[in-house]
Design brief:
Layout (H helix, E strand, L loop, with lengths): L2 E8 L4 H21 L6 E7 L2 E7 L8 E9 L4 H11 L8 E5 L3 E10 L4 H14 L25 E9 L6 E2 L3 E2 L2 E2 L3 E3 L8 E3 L3 H10 L6 H18 L3 E2 L3 H8 L6 E6 L9 H12 L2 E4 L9 E6 L8 H25 L10 H6 L7 H11 L3 E3 L3 E2 H19 L3 H11 L6 H5 L6 H9 L4 H9 L14 H20 L13 H14 L6 H15 L8 H18 L4 H7 L7 H15 L2 H23 L15 H22 L3 H9 L2 H10 L7 H19 L10
Helix pairs in contact: 1-3, 5-6, 7-8, 11-12, 11-16, 11-18, 12-15, 12-16, 14-15, 15-16, 16-17, 16-18, 17-19, 20-21, 21-24, 22-25, 22-26, 23-24, 23-25, 23-26
């Protein structure tokens, strides 16, 4: 079966777009082929800075013939009906139709239509121009003289050539001809733009990849990453160092080169006084270089690793020298930021009101920055006020939360008023991803307590499912207050996540609250916390008066379900313990854990079956309007099974309530498990719908006791099985 090779070669494609674009090309073309009735054995995409490549193996040479039967009118139908049938079926004469008989409907015409298959080349030639013209680049551009015409090609960077060859391994391949804006598909590509710019004629993928390799192009992006990583580790090791690995940077750098050459540069050791985080981000952001450190060290070395796209004749000396000059210039700027942030601001007299508001000490640099943040009225959100107003709200909320977390209230307050101060530092202005980290460093430099400095850095955490969650009570308190204020605020202005859109990362904030509570074993009732946050918000913004607590709690329930399911909990068990006003997340998680253990036990499964039967019978009778006694009357019992069940329910529910009061959910489940045998015996021996109305009502009330007893732990009717 034939193979298909596609290459779209252009000027440099931005590294961040390459992987997705290659995947888009594969999906668009394979979807088009399948829709046209073709099948293939396998397809793989490749990408470099200058090309998107697709290798499709075992493609059908042509689509299969399609046979269709089209039913027509009865044989005794009028002439117009028959003419319409012939036109629709593409028949020239009724003699070309077949007559089918039906015992009920009589004889009628049927057209047997055969649509012959089409060669794969035709369908590829039709599909590719449309795919290229409508390719989903985020920001395509037009180029060249032809771009002035309406409808001209738009590509991420100027498209230069197209390769499209087709053929089996046992036959010579041929070019599938098509053209897009004057670019005609061929079997010619080009290698590395500096080392091998000459034309290369290719046949099929193996030949293509081999010739590109000789022309200094490593086609496979994953292989380029492996080469860069291995060479970078080796170069670092040879110099007595270890590479500080960075997967995101590795992905980006592999998309900048077709023939990776790893080199080592250096800068003056004096720059190592700058925090390692600043050095790393400076070198990474501006020069796309990796940093190194002594094995096991926390701080960096003055050696960095760069990846060139050129195999230089001088061994890379000029390339290293040029990169080193830029790195030194950037580090000089970073050192300037670092020192400026530790100095006094020039306009301290204008900051006294803000300093008084937040109990700040204007002799300290970080305090000055917080006062400046407030005095400048830096906006957090147009409808939620300034950063200073937000800090005031977080301060009030954190003071209440500290009573729950047990954190030192003075340390919490100090951490809150300094938590956002580094937003006014020059280091964070240059590198926003360092917010919190720089606040931690500046706080220690001005003599703050370690717990305060840690809370400044950690109050943004956990920033995603894999991020570390803080455990120190001060940091936990500030982190909870920050996230809850954010959630309550955006709910109050009706800026909630919708579908896949979540511009303010509110899902992440809710997950952060959930992890802080569950991983820190914090007993925080969310509804009172929402109310405290709302009071602080309404004091500043009285117009935000809507009650959002129930809706926000429902949002937390949804996020909790996702979190617990990711940990392996069953969705039906989570639903069974959740009620609309459940706001103690730790309690919910413990109930789910106990319920999971309970229903995996045989007695638990049997009790579940019996309880669901009782609940279903009771619900059906209630729906019909059957009388159910208000209370169980032991005097109406006629059978021993009724008496035994009543005694067991009374005893079991009492034990379960006591266990739940102590938050011992496993013991509560064990108490309910004792109902298994009496419930089974009851349904074996007792007819609930007795002819005597009083007995029937009493027995239904007994079923109600079963529902109530198990309902203290969970709604068994929501559990599957």
């Amino acid at each position: 079966m034939p193979d298909l090779l596609i290459e779209l070669r252009s000027e440099e494609i931005p590294a961040r777009l390459q992987r997705k674009a290659a995947g888009d090309l594969k999906k668009l073309l394979t979807d088009a082929l399948v829709e046209a009735g073709l099948t293939y054995e396998g397809a793989r995409e490749y990408w470099t800075p200058r090309r998107l490549t697709l290798d499709i193996r075992g493609l059908n040479a042509r689509s299969a013939d399609v046979r269709e039967e089209r039913k027509g009118p009865r044989t005794d139908a009028n002439e117009k009906a028959i003419e319409g049938f012939l036109r629709g079926a593409g028949l020239s004469s009724i003699s070309e139709a077949h007559v089918h008989s039906d015992p009920k409907k009589g004889d009628f015409y049927v057209a047997h239509i055969v649509k012959p298959g089409r060669p794969a080349e035709e369908m590829i030639a039709e599909a590719m121009p449309d795919i290229i013209r409508n390719f989903p680049w985020p920001k395509p551009m037009r180029s060249g003289v032809a771009s002035a015409k309406p409808g001209s090609l738009r590509w991420v960077r100027p498209l230069q050539s197209i390769v499209c060859t087709f053929g089996s391994e046992t036959e010579e391949t041929h070019v599938i001809p098509f053209e897009v804006d004057g670019i005609v598909a061929s079997n010619v590509t080009y290698g590395h733009r500096f080392h091998a710019p000459e034309a290369i004629t290719v046949r099929r993928f193996a030949d293509y990849a081999e010739k590109l390799e000789k022309a200094k192009v490593v086609l496979d992006g994953e292989r380029r990453k492996e080469m860069i990583l291995a060479d970078a580790r080796n170069v670092a090791f040879a110099n007595g160092l270890e590479l500080v690995e960075d997967e995101g940077l590795l992905e980006e750098v592999s998309g900048l080169v077709e023939w990776p050459q790893v080199l080592m540069g250096s800068f003056e050791e004096a720059y190592l006084e700058i925090p390692s985080e600043i050095i790393r981000l400076t070198i990474k952001t501006n020069q796309k270089c990796f940093v190194t450190r002594a094995p096991g060290a926390d701080t960096l070395s003055n050696k960095f690793i760069l990846v060139s796209n050129i195999e230089a004749k001088d061994g890379g000396k000029e390339i290293v020298h040029g990169n080193g000059k830029v790195v030194r210039a950037r580090l000089s700027d970073a050192a300037h930021f670092w020192h400026r942030d530790q100095g006094n601001l020039p306009d301290l007299e204008t900051l006294e009101a803000s300093a008084k508001k937040f109990d700040l000490d204007l002799k300290k640099p970080l305090d000055q920055r917080m006062a400046k943040l407030d005095a400048l009225k830096v906006t957090f959100h147009a409808k939620l006020g300034t950063e200073g107003e937000r800090v005031a709200r977080i301060r009030a909320l954190a003071a209440e939360l500290a009573k729950v977390t047990g954190a030192d209230t003075k340390l919490v307050d100090r951490a809150v008023v300094l938590a956002k101060a580094d937003l006014r530092t020059e280091a964070v202005g240059e590198f926003p991803e360092l917010q919190g980290i720089m606040g931690h460093k500046y706080a220690l430099l001005q003599g703050e307590q370690p717990a305060v400095a840690d809370a400044i850095e950690d109050h943004y955490k956990p920033n995603g499912p894999s991020d570390r969650a803080p455990t120190d009570p001060v940091a936990v308190t500030v982190a909870l207050a920050d996230k809850l204020d954010k959630l309550v605020g955006f709910w109050a202005i009706d800026e909630k996540p919708t579908g896949s859109k979540d511009p303010y990362a509110l899902r992440r904030a809710a997950l952060g609250v959930i992890r802080l509570i569950l991983e820190g074993k914090a007993r925080l009732a969310l509804l009172p916390a929402f109310e405290t946050a709302l009071v602080a918000l309404r004091a500043q913004k009285p117009e935000l008066s809507a009650d959002i607590s129930a809706d926000l709690l429902s949002f937390f329930h949804d996020r909790l379900k996702v979190y617990l399911r990711d940990l392996g909990a069953r969705h039906d068990l989570i639903d069974a313990v959740l009620t609309p006003d459940s706001d103690d997340l730790l309690m919910i998680a413990r109930r789910v854990e106990a319920l999971t253990a309970f229903i995996t036990d045989e007695e638990g499964r049997n009790l579940l079956a019996g309880t669901k039967r009782a609940t279903q019978i009771l619900a059906a009778e209630e729906k019909k309007g059957t009388t159910v006694a208000d209370a169980v009357d032991a005097g109406l019992f006629r059978l021993d099974a009724e008496k035994a069940l009543h005694q067991a329910v009374e005893a079991g529910s009492g034990e379960a309530r006591e266990a739940i009061a102590k938050e011992d959910f496993r013991s509560a489940m064990e108490a309910l498990a004792k109902l298994r045998q009496p419930v089974d015996q009851f349904f074996n021996d007792v007819l609930v719908n007795d002819d005597d109305a009083a007995i029937r009502a009493n027995r239904l009330a007994l079923l109600g006791l079963i529902r109530s007893a198990t309902g203290t732990v969970a709604d068994f009717s929501k559990i599957a099985g």
